[in-house]
Amino acid sequence: MIPSELKNDLQTRIASAVTNREAAVDVMKALQGHYGWLTDEAVIEASELLGLSPLQVEELATFYEMIYRRPVGQHVIHVCDSISCWAVGGESLLQHISVFLGIAAGETTPDGLFTLLPCCCLGNCGQAPTMMIGDVVYGSVTPENIASIFSSYQ
Ligand code: FES
Question: What pTM does this model have?
Answer without folding.
Answer: 0.89
